[in-house]
Specification:
single chain; about 575 residues; alpha+beta; six-stranded antiparallel β-sheet; 14 helices
Amino acid sequence: MMLAKLMPFIRTKSLHLLIISFLFIIISFPFYEEMKNRINSSALIINMYKSSLESSIYQYKFLPFILSQNQKIVDIVSGDLNATESGFFLQRIKYATNVATVFVQDRSGRAIASSNWDSKDSYIGKNYGFRPYFKEAMAGRLGQFYGVGITSLTPGYFISYGLRSGDAIVGAITIEINLSSLEDVWGSGPDEILVHDRNNIIFLSSNKAWKNKTFGDISQIAIDKVDSEKQFVRHLLSPIELQPCYRVGDMTFYSNSMFGCLLPGKFSIEENIITYGWTILSLQSTHYYYALAGLALLLVVLVYAIVIFSFRNFRNKYNRSILKLRTQLVENSKLASIGQMATELAHEFNQPLSAIYMLLDTSRLMLARKLYPQVDDNLALVASHIERMTQQISELKSFASRHRIASGNANVVLVANSSIRLFQATLKKNNVPLDFHASHNVIEVPCNEIGLGQIFSNLITNAIEAMATQEKKRLEIRISKEKSRTSGPDKVVVTIRDNGSGISDPSQIFESYFSTKQQGTGLGLAIVKGIVEHSGGSIIARNHPDGGAEFVIKWREWIDVATAEQ
């Protein structure tokens, strides 16, 4: 029962949810495309940054090998060139190749010549034998390393190659590349860019405050390794304030200081630089995307409000038109019913009129013979016949009234009896025995006599027509009271049941223009439902387990407040 009451509510909510979902999909599509294009643009930009970083290194990658073939540089290791000549020579190479520094190391790793020989930060005399790039060069391989310069304290990328004298490697030629110019280019872009190595140490970033910090935690082993190679300044190695939340596809989202991971504050797109074991990331704020989502949601709400307002306006106009048409059809239906009843009443009036005529004719003869007591008896019979006909005419006038307003109150038992008497001839003609029972003689409900008469008339007519094909017909009308579960008035229950063919679709039976009869208007039960609900009641239609249809109407019993207080 509770589920049946909830179903219309659930259907309405589902329909509204469907409308909102449809509007959201349609309206959010261009915003989604804008977000997608922006993310794709960021992916292209970070790929471009990655290419620029790789090309900045690659253009110098083989320079140390080329320089190692120059005999003059080998002569620097053997001591055939003095410090001044060596310095000027390496300085010319520096300016010609646009590198940061060029220096030569002996077998122990000590710098014996450098392009910055005449500056206060000269590398000459400094030992860099512990650096990985020097060890790789002395092993006959191309050495590459990114780290902070011990002397200059500025970060740089070092590429080194061994110098051979005969079959022996007697030293190394090393170039230093300054990649800081890339950071200036990245800083002019819309995103925050950073590059970290396999130990999560950030060595390039458009945000200067992030350099020499870590992207997340770093292990103690990695810290000890960095410290032994003096790759970065150890006391600056601290994590940046980015707390990862979750990953969606190629994007990683980071916590918001106010809303945590519920509404992330940033997200990143990353590319791996496999050759060097680095990772380059583009970090973006989510505010722009939240603004787009909020704008899309606002448009959905506005369009939804416009759609609902337009629909309700249309529905109200439609309902007014339908109500007007329904009123006209009801009146036509009433006239048709009155015509049918007039035929039945004409048959009913024929007998008493004939009796009245005979009694009056007889009375005239009796008056001529001065039989006054017999004349009085005849006149009493005439009066009774006239009284019965007057009652029937009164009931017919009540039924034919144009007013259907259900406000007010009436004794439902009295109206039911009146309706039954009105249909007595029709019931007799169709061989329909009627079983009527009321638990009390007076049961007041919040519906007036006209409305109750319309209810009983429609339901009795439907029941008679539904049993047209049945051999044994039976119509039951029950009126009773149910105790209320609360302290309020009792419930009045009116049950009308027939043993006809039943209801094919109880869920549609009260809909306007729905009819199972070939010549039916489909408005009778819709009108009944309207009168019942307008008077604060409820009505259900169902098939009885023993066959036939059953209509159950419920009201709260009407109580005169003034009388109750007295």
